[in-house]
Amino acid sequence: MSSTLNPTTPRSIDQPAPGFWVIAPVVAIAAFMEVLDLSIANVALLHIAGSLSASQDQATWVLTAYTLTNAIILPLSGWLATTFGRKRYFMASIGGFSLASLLCGLAPSLGALVVFRAIQGLVGGGLQPNAQAILSDASPPEKRGMAFAFYGMAVVLAPAIGPTLGGWITYHMSWRWVFLINVPVGILLLPMIQSLVRDPPHFAATRIARKARGLKLDYIGFSLIAIGLGSLQIVLDRGQQNDWFASHLILAMTSLAVVALIGFVVWEWTRSDPIVDLHLLKDPTFAVANLLMFMLGFVLLATTVLLPLYVQSLMGYTPVEAGLMLSPGGVAILFLMPVVGQLVSRIDARWLISAGFLVIGLAMFLMTGFDTETGFQTLMWTRVFQACGMAFLFIPINTVAFTAIDAAKSSNASAIINMSRNIGGSFGISIAVTLLARAAQAHQDRLVGDVAAVSPALRSYVASVGRLLARQGHRGVAASHEAMGILYGTVIKQATMLAYIDDFWYLGVVSIALIPTVFFLKRRKTAQTGAPGGMH
Predict the structure, then answer these.
(1) Other CB atoms closer than 10 Å to residue 470's CB: what's the count?
(2) What is the reported pLDDT for 168?
(3) Alpha-carbon gap, residue 418 to 399, rounded angstroms
């Protein structure tokens, strides 16, 4: 059995090293397709609402349904892959995701679209962790960093270009093609996965052992994690819209999430064959790596949401222009990921991770200098600088995370670390948007208080604008009221700008504060990534 669990054995027999360069792009595209759907529909919501006769608030359930079911299935994907076979489950996920995408594109009503999106998130939840595991198994030890580079390019680039691509498709074609575009991709991927990918021998051994014991689904564990993560996702997605704990729904969902997740941890900890192997977190390095991956998702998704909102709401950018501002950052990640994949075999991963968080922190502090007149080039290059930091995080964190994980636990480990990144992203978006709204209100109250009715500057401003309006045909009291309206609009705009600056500052502080945490990771030689722990 020990020879069966040696990761070098299946690679040398089933998937020789040269095949990695053929397998990697195919598998990475599958992960890219699934992650892309987390953000590609965002800019199409208004079009969806108008087309299906729904309000914008109702249309947001199109996003919530997907993230909710995706969050539920993601941690279970390791158990499903080990039980039914990774290749079989991966192909079923691609096929199911493509079919659900087709149904989304053809949905006749908002209710049907929400249901199909929930199915899409459920069947597609296994694509990310299994793609990561396949890439790791397909790569020889010395190319393990490159395996993470391919996967990193998929899951870090997709959220960055999702809104841009979604906006372009919606504007030039139809919102339905935001979903339909997945169908031909899935059809092309299935035969290639069938011919290229093979399960390592330990999967067959585990599957046979489970069948011998009798295949039983842990219904209690599954129910607890489904209720816990589902409730948590609703809280994060709907919290700000419902005024958080002033809402009975949010209060109930929070209580349900806390009770269910605590119950899940207690229940799974005592199981001999858990659906999510939480015992992996007993390894300090793996636990800290999950924390860092959580924060990577937090900062990545928070800034990916904040920057387009900022340039569209305050500077009048169209969705396509906002995407063009973000896209060079994605290009920077594409070029840097392979470089970092090589560096991780030569430089202590802890220093690379520290450099990544430092660069992100500095980039966020640079963003605190933005205003409503900041030029496109400044915005773009600051985003590129921040993206460079992102590129130095994903690969080293993954490389370090699995150095102590046995090959037989690889799919479980991949499910956990992908769950950490996704939940981190949900927290990042929710907290960033909440802080933005609360800070904008606080700054507005302060600025309005500073504009005293008896202020000579205020009287001079109103008189000046009033004279300008008079030349355009406005007279008397109406001109004064319109001048006050213009002033109020300016106050709101400046208050919102100050709120964005606050958000950028907080994200910068958090990024810098994470650097000492990196050194809780154990220093292990890169050569050990070829050990069983290197697989996932």
Answers:
(1) 13
(2) 80
(3) 14
Residue 521 to residue 291: CA distance in whole angstroms: 11
Residue pair 333/173 in contact (Cβ under 8 Å)? The answer is no
Residue ranges of alpha helices (H) inside 270-375 are 284-315, 319-343, 349-367
In a 13 Å sphere around the CA of 182, the CA atoms on its Cβ side amount to 34
Same fold, 1-215 and 277-450+502-536: yes
Alpha-carbon gap, residue 70 to 130, rounded angstroms? 14
Q: Return the SS3 of 218.
A: coil
CATH fold, domain 1-215, is Growth Hormone; Chain: A; (1.20.1250)
Q: What is the DSSP letter of 533?
A: G
All structural domains of the chain with their residue ranges: 1-215, 218-274, 277-450+502-536, 451-495
CATH fold, domain 277-450+502-536, is: Growth Hormone; Chain: A; (1.20.1250)
Q: Which pTM was predicted?
A: 0.76
The burial class, CB within 10 Å (0-12 / 13-18 / 19+), for 213 is exposed
Angle between helices 410-450 and 61-73 (to 10 degrees): 140
171 alpha-carbon distance from chain centroid: 24
**In whole angstroms, what is the distance from residue 491 CA to residue 495 CA?**
6
Q: How many residues does the chain have?
A: 536
Token pair recorded at residue 248: 């009975």
Please give the distance of CA 369 from its chain centroid, rounded to a whole number.
26
pLDDT mean values, one per 10 residues, the chain (536 residues): 38 45 80 81 76 74 80 80 82 92 90 90 85 73 67 74 77 85 90 81 67 70 85 83 83 91 87 78 86 88 82 79 80 83 81 91 92 87 90 83 68 80 84 86 75 58 61 57 64 86 93 89 54 35
pLDDT of 138:
67
Helices 20-36 and 86-105, axial angle in degrees (round to 10)? 40
Q: Please name which of 391, 295, 401, 384 lies closest in space to residue 342, comparing C-alpha atoms.
A: 391
| Own/partner pairs, 16-20, CB within 8 angstroms, 24+ separation | 17/139, 17/140, 17/143, 19/138, 19/196, 20/135, 20/138, 20/139, 20/140, 20/143, 20/146, 20/147
User: Are 21 and 144 spatial neighbours (Cβ–Cβ below 8 Å)?
Assistant: no
Query: 181 and 161 in contact (C-beta within 8 Å)?
Result: no
Q: Are 39 and 209 in contact (CB under 8 A)?
A: no
